[in-house]
């Protein structure tokens, strides 16, 4: 596979930065660098999804590292891991064999920021730090970015999506995220992109009706987040390509009040909600993205992982794929809504609980 072929596969598969930035991944690989930095630091208190991905798909990550070295010529692949997670990532340290390195970094949640992560990985080599500013030919300046110092940085889930695209030919249709809160044990789900947060919370065991108006749902963690639902039961939000957590807290309380939240890896591991939600609203664009050209129209029946958006040539644009099977209920405002074809919510909750007891 050539570099150009791999980059186009990433573009068509719809891969963006899953860690929260949402920058189109294919564009980073258009200009290969000497080093690939794997951001495995789970940069929010209470998060477990990325660590579980590394545990469940350990062999897949090793295959991917080997492939990316072969295709893009990386001189180094370096995994940045929190000191507190050293034991969890012990299998990687034992299996590195020159293919990659594991570097332990301080247990600070700012470590999810790329420049800080790089600075701590290369503590004694300032030449590899990202410059604060870069002079441009026209005399202007811009903030430094990782490629200025020879790095491509990817979040763990982003890399797993690259694996699925390159090895399995599968597009991005789901998001791995945690549902948790001070009164809600943490669960990790693979959720269809565009799913209703309220419906996901119902499956997770939250009584939406009884808590109407009393709880807020944060899209993210205690530090880096956006308001998802200000008052549960009085609005909704939808799982995006960059949604990493649904933090359920009392309405009116600041999310940072839960910076010390303690969670445990769920015994059931990652539970898939594919086919278990009643509808999705899939965005054709995003923060950095020009909307893809819709390939479906209202009333059309679509299959799971069917392509519903073709990337446009102007600006950054990616392929978009159906995250559930069903009927297209609308195509408007850059969003394709699909309904039907799902397991009823009560049955979905029962199935999820059954999986948890196996």
Automatic annotation (TrEMBL):
One of its GO terms (molecular function) is 4 iron, 4 sulfur cluster binding. Keywords: 4Fe-4S, Electron transport, Iron, Iron-sulfur, Metal-binding, Repeat, Transport. One of its GO terms (cellular component) is membrane. Residues 11-164 form the NADH-ubiquinone oxidoreductase 51kDa subunit FMN-binding domain. It comes from the Bacteria. Gene3D superfamilies: NADH-ubiquinone oxidoreductase 51kDa subunit (3.40.50.11540). Pfam families: Complex1_51K, RnfC_N. Residues 280-336 form the RnfC Barrel sandwich hybrid domain. PANTHER family: ION-TRANSLOCATING OXIDOREDUCTASE COMPLEX SUBUNIT C. This is Respiratory-chain NADH dehydrogenase domain, 51 kDa subunit.
């Amino acid at each position: 596979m050539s570099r150009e072929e791999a980059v186009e596969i990433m573009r068509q598969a719809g891969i963006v930065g899953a860690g929260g930035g949402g920058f189109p991944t294919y564009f980073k690989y258009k200009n290969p660098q000497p080093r690939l930095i794997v951001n495995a630091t789970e940069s929010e208190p209470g998060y477990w999804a990325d660590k579980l991905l590394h545990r469940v798909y350990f062999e897949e990550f090793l295959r991917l590292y080997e492939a990316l070295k072969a295709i893009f010529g990386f001189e180094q692949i370096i995994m940045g891991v929190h000191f507190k997670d050293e034991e969890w990532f012990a299998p990687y340290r034992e299996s590195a064999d020159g293919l990659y390195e594991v570097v332990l970094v301080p247990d600070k949640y700012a470590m999810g920021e790329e420049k800080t992560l790089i600075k701590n990985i290369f503590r004694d080599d300032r030449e590899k730090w990202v410059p604060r500013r870069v002079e441009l030919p026209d005399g202007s300046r811009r903030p430094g970015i990782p490629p200025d110092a020879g790095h491509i940085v990817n979040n763990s889930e982003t890399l797993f999506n690259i694996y699925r695209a390159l090895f399995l030919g599968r597009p991005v249709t789901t998001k791995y995220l945690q549902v948790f809160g001070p009164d809600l044990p943490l669960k990790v789900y693979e959720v269809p992109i565009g799913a209703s947060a309220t419906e996901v919370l119902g499956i997770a065991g939250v009584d939406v009706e009884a808590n109407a108006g009393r709880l807020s749902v944060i899209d993210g963690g205690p530090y880096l987040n956006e308001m998802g639902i200000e008052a549960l039961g009085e609005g909704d939000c939808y799982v995006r390509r960059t949604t990493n957590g649904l933090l359920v807290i009392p309405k009116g309380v600041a999310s940072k009040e839960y910076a010390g939240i303690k969670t445990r890896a769920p015994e059931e591991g990652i539970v898939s909600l594919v086919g278990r939600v009643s509808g999705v609203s899939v965005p054709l664009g995003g923060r950095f993205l020009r909307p893809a050209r819709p390939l479906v129209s209202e009333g059309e029946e679509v299959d799971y992982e069917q392509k519903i958006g073709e990337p446009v040539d102007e600006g950054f644009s990616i392929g978009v794929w159906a995250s559930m099977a069903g009927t297209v209920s609308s195509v408007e405002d850059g969003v394709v809504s699909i309904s039907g074809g799902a397991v009823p919510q009560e049955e979905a909750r029962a199935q999820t609980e059954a999986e948890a007891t196996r």
